[in-house]
Amino acid sequence: MAAARTRSRYVPDRGLTTRMVTTMFFIGLLYVVFVGVLLALLRGAWPLILLIAAGLFIAQFWFSDKIAARGMGAREVTPEQAPELHGAVDRICALADMPKPQVAVADSDVPNAFATGRSQKTALVCATTGLLRRLEPEELEGVLAHELSHVAHRDVAVMTIASFLGVLAGVITRVSLYSGLGRAGRSNNNAALVMALVPLVSAVVYVVSFLLTRLLSRYRELAADRAAALLTGRPSALASALTKVTGEMARIPTRDLRRAEPYNAFWFAPAFSSRESLARLLSSHPTLEQRLEQLARISAGLARP
Q: Is 153 known as a binding-site position?
């Protein structure tokens, strides 16, 4: 019974599952190669490298969702404090047959929402005060259904783990450069070569892991839109919320958007978006046009007898 309970009524997405498995495979392979190269270059420092790698992985897996939620200003609220938000979450959870997550609000005029958590038991869904003030009840439910699909599909946990390698690469680079790990037992020439190679290897690892997570991130947003639209049966409400949120972003002070930008991969809609091809390649979200076109196709499909 417990195993069956972990399945929700969200439509399974094989494309998303395939991409998550593929991303995790290549991220894991890259991680093994990265640590192996560091061990070969920094022979005298291998205990410290393994200790840092293991410690950061545990910290990233267990605490990154809490750190992200805190960084975005989420504070847990009771049904008495936010009855509209709790009511919408209750309806979506009942519709999806999934456990209710923790419910939080972020005091920000940026209209947005996000979900974090390693599993359904540790999940948290958060809406900003700006979003709650601007959306109609059906639009809010569409956004929350989108966010809770990330939890049901477990792509939040995969994104958390996948982003770990870039963090590790940066930390290892700093430790190597500022503590002289490569100089142990080597000549000055060898030490200089090692200290030049470590940042190079770290940079390559960071770029590859960044591109892999961006590809997964864009697809998972489309998958969440699709799952939410099919669950609620109201793709037009989600499309309306998307249009409204994206339009309102232009009215938000740039300072507030910059503060939200580091967490773009978590947000329902990015704080900044660009029409330039290179920027779109590196974006955490598909374009508004892509998302609206998909919702229009779903709406047309649901309208057929």
A: no
CA distance between the termini of the chain:
35
Assigned token pair, 77: 């609220």
Beta-sheet pairing, 113-116 with 102-106: unpaired
Pick 181 or 295 by higher pLDDT. Answer: 295
Q: 82 and 138: one domain? A: yes
Shared-domain flag, residues 242 and 151:
yes
Q: Alpha carbon 111 to chain centroid distance?
A: 17
Classify 225 as helix, strand or coil. Answer: helix
- Regarding whether 162 and 298 lie in a shared domain, the answer is no
Same domain, residue pair 240 and 119: yes
Residues 64 and 124 in one domain: no
Domain assignment of residue 118, given as a range: 72-156+214-303
Residue 9 domain-assigned?
A: no
Q: Quote the CA–CA distance of 241 and 132 in Å, as a whole number.
A: 11
- Please state the pTM of the whole predicted model: 0.83
Output the average pLDDT for the chain.
82
Query: Of 195, 213, 231, which closes a domain?
Result: 213
For 258-282, what is the mean pLDDT? 71
SS3 string of 29-90? HHHHHHHHHHHHHCHHHHHHHHHHHHHHHHHHHHHHHHHHHHHCCEEECCCCCCHHHHHHHH
Q: Does 61 share its domain with 80? A: no
Q: Is 150 annotated as a binding residue?
A: yes
User: Is 147 a catalytic site residue?
Assistant: yes
The domain tally of the chain equals: 2
Select which of 139, 141, 147, 248 is catalytic.
147
Query: Is 276 annotated to bind ligand?
Result: no
Higher-confidence residue: 28 or 277?
28
Kindly give, in sequence order, each residue whose CB lies less than 8 Å from that of residue 274, ignoring residues fewer than 6 positions away.
280, 283
